[in-house]
Amino acid sequence: MTAASAKAISGAAFATLLLIALMMGANHVAARIAFNHGADVATAVVFRSAVTALVIVAILAVQGVRVTFTARHKRMLPAIGLLIGVQSLCLYSAVARLPVALALLAFNTYPIWTALWAAIVYRQKPEKAMLVAMPVILVGLAIALDVFGAASGLGASGQWARIGAGVGFALAAGATFGLALVLTQHEAGDVDGRVRTATTMMMAGLMALATVALQGGFHLPNAPAGWGGLAALTFLYGTAFTIMFTVLPRLGVVGNSAIMNVEPVFALVLAWLVLGQSIAPVQVAGALLVVGAVMALGLRKR
User: Which residue numbers delimit the EamA domain (predicted)?
Assistant: First the structure.
């Protein structure tokens, strides 16, 4: 961590990071509304990715960013984009099946996956902080998901019958995102973040479009609320990324700040207010444990 990123951020930067986390959490709540009214996962990813890619490309054009790729970049950027495409499809699939906050919490295991992939692919030993945080994250996630079915009263088998598929998709999203982060760091870390995002969104959109074709076409919303959800998730996601790459650099903040990991907390509140989703107090405690551990990892000095 550089001296610039290690120092305390300004109030404006902190507020901007919280705004991005709020918008990303709201994006998933909006996605659930769209899914509840006829839209499917692939359709949502196509809309979201295409619009975000267009916005980032427009930013690149306006700012006059020169785009050049090495042979390595040409090999790895499509692979990273495909991984993010899988991650997007899996995460929205989890959101469609689980309470939004729980889907995001299971996805928030990605720091563990990142450490595992770094060890497997690049033989990097996990840091001591990660080894300490891993069990904390897993215990918190187990409590939040109510894996033994105590809070729900369903028992372990009943609870897993209800959440198993959603949890599987969320963990798959975390695993693919972790691998994408590792490959990005080692193979494409020298590519401009805006350029990486544009290529990633293009690949994710193309992958989702292929999925749409395989399933026989777009599954569009069948009610005004669904169209509102689809429009909202597209606007929120694209706007969050636009802020990330236009405002944050001027404030001297790294885009992937740990502060944005409060997204599941915002999603928990928004899902309760908008969707009527609620979880038991003990599950909330588990959620806060996961968020706290992930934020501690992100905020640690290196």
Answer: 16-144, 166-296
